[in-house]
Design brief:
The complex is a heterodimer. Chain A is mainly alpha-helical. Chain A has 12 helices and no strands. Chain B is globular. Chain B has a single domain, classed as MetI-like fold (Orthogonal Bundle). The longest helix of chain B has 44 residues. Classes of the chains: A mainly alpha, B mainly alpha.
Chain lengths: 287, 288
């Protein structure tokens, strides 16, 4: 009995150890190749470091703002306005959005949505708000930081929506009944509900931020690939797209490989910190 | 007072409907674009468009097709799934069976970090260790880079799904004197719908993943049937659908862009098929 027990224990532990090895291998390689660049200061001197971190943060923040607007609108629509029969239609359409491979957002953004977005949104922004540094670049070409952020926002909306919707549903119904009996309108009810679930909203947005900052294919297609501290309407560069574009020449350029790996490590750390943040928020909400 | 309330409620209603209408219209617009552009080569050249290889010559009016791309995708995703699914599932079983052991709590935390890591990092790690070592971008490496996505996801989901089973079931098995394997078998069978649905979703995730492949596979629209089909994993020819879509979208040749849309149509069809199977199996599981 004890022999067979220990054998089954060992058999179960083997896959776990293999998976654990996979994770450790990933972390060790990432850190090992970034150390030279960080230690020698070559990362700090590398001209793309700061602009690309800026670009990654910029497009992710735009994405989070877009996702915030859409996901709250959808949550309120589904819970306050729609009849049950239509709810299924709307939520399956949102699920469709979550099921699209991300590269499809790239081709659609570049070939269908982008040209119209440039003509009807970016040009007017440049024309009327061009005195602001944010919109000071004439949008001659389709790829731009704003377009990338908007497409990423559409892409992460279903993830934010699912978190916020679930939380909205768990608000006790006594709250609504009390407010109705006090003569509150829809505006007040929605306001109080949203305040009640603010932790879930922040959690959903952090999740979207993590998804947006880690996205590669759509960003590489839409952002344009110019390394600078770009205005919104200009082509820009982010860390994942920089890695995709530069890795091909990295092995003939001394130090570049290590710099790119260090940037990937920074991206990984930003994502991990965001994940840690969600967990802390959830833990606090549970208390 | 009442009038002020009504105006605000009306404003809320309009704001919410406009924003929701906008995002729903965007979804329909995307679906419409994929079907509209993606069906052009099929209408022009029939089902040959799903078998032939892309015609990259600018002079010829023929589109060609996406056959080798579908084959490459199936091979790469298939190899990844064949290793990744059992590995992830068994890891999940361990996490569920020994929730309090130090090993599984460390493993769980690390796997959770890996699930949300930027996918480009997976490609980079494989590139640094394998591609640079032999100076070739074999399709096998693409399959390996996708392992990082499927294993943590399946492991964590398996553990979570089994944890939702009533604890009485497990207690009954143990009190009947069943071995650990038998107990796990009974539990897995009780939750098989959710487990299989989750595996379908994980396959769909891998199928649509592009980030790591842009680094470890050749980014090109130039692919043709050839002798490589007999040993696809150890050759450098395979180009998955996702990578082709990336390369085609940036191509200057209009018909290649259209072929990219056909690839989108095929890829969306595969992903939706998997999601629909998952949905039919269980109506409670989340798509995320």
């Amino acid at each position: 009995m004890s022999v067979s027990k220990s054998i089954s224990d060992i058999f179960l532990a083997v896959p776990l150890l293999v998976s654990l090895g996979l994770v450790l291998y990933f972390l060790v390689v990432l850190v090992y190749y970034s150390v030279p660049s960080i230690v020698t200061g070559s990362l700090a001197k590398y001209s793309a470091t700061l602009p690309c971190i800026y670009g990654s943060l910029l497009i992710s923040i735009i994405a989070v703002i877009i996702a915030l607007a859409f996901s709250i609108a959808l949550t309120v629509l589904i819970n306050e306005y729609l009849p049950r029969s239509l709810e299924a239609v709307v939520s399956s359409l949102i699920d469709v959005l979550a099921a699209f491979p991300t590269v499809i957002f790239g081709i659609w953004g570049l070939r269908v949505f982008g040209p119209l977005f440039r003509d009807y949104v970016e040009w007017p922004l440049y024309k009327y708000l061009g005195f602001l540094p944010l919109f000071s670049y004439p949008p001659y070409q389709v790829p731009s930081a704003l377009l990338t952020g908007v497409i990423l926002g559409i892409m992460v909306t279903p993830f934010a929506t699912s978190v916020i919707r679930e939380a909205y549903r768990t608000v006790p119904s006594e709250l609504r009944e009390t407010m109705l009996s006090l003569g509150a309108g829809k505006w007040e009810i929605v306001k109080v509900h949203l305040l009640h679930i603010r932790e879930a909203i922040i959690g959903g947005l952090t999740l979207s931020f993590g998804k947006a900052i880690g996205e590669t294919a759509a960003v590489a297609m839409l952002i344009g690939g110019t390394v600078w501290f770009c205005p919104l309407t200009a082509p820009c560069e982010a860390i994942p797209s920089l890695i995709v574009r530069q890795l091909g020449i990295a092995f003939i350029t001394p130090g570049l490989l290590s710099n790119l790996t260090a940037l990937a490590l920074i991206l990984f750390i930003i994502g991990a910190v965001a994940l840690l943040g969600i967990r802390l928020i959830i833990r606090r909400a549970h208390r | 007072m009442v009038r002020k309330y009504r105006a605000r409620d009306l404003a809320l209603g309009i704001l919410v409907s406009v924003a929701s209408g906008l995002i729903l219209a965007l979804v329909l617009w995307m679906l419409g674009s994929i079907f509209y552009y993606g069906s052009i080569p099929i209408i022009r050249e029939g089902l040959k468009a799903l078998i032939a290889s892309p015609n990259t010559s600018p002079e010829s009016p023929q589109y060609g097709g996406v056959g080798p791309l579908i084959y490459s995708t199936l091979i790469i995703v298939g190899a990844c799934v064949l290793i990744g699914l059992p590995l992830g599932f068994l890891t999940g079983l361990y996490l569920y069976e020994y929730p309090t052991s130090r090993l599984s709590s460390i493993a769980r935390r690390l796997l959770e970090v890996l699930v949300e890591a930027p996918t480009v990092c997976y490609g980079l790690v494989i590139y640094l260790t394998f591609v640079l070592a032999i100076k070739e971008k074999l399709a096998l490496f693409a399959a390996l880079s996708l392992l990082f996505i499927i294993v943590p996801y399946v492991a964590i989901q398996t553990c979570d799904i089994l944890s939702t089973l009533p604890p009485e079931l497990k207690e009954t098995c143990i009190s009947l004197g069943l071995s650990r394997w038998k107990t796990l078998k009974v539990l897995s069978r009780a939750a098989w719908r959710a487990l299989v649905a989750n595996m379908m979703i994980s396959v769909a995730k891998v199928l649509g993943e592009t980030g790591p492949l842009l680094i470890v596979a050749h980014v090109t629209v130039d692919i043709a049937w050839g002798p490589w089909v007999y040993h696809p994993l150890t050759s450098i020819e395979p180009v998955p659908l996702t990578v082709f879509i990336y390369a085609a979208a940036l191509s200057a040749l209009h018909k290649i862009v259209i072929l990219g849309w056909l690839a989108c149509l095929v890829l969306t069809g595969m992903a939706f098929g998997l999601f629909i199977i998952a949905r039919v199996l269980t109506r409670t599981i989340e798509i995320l």
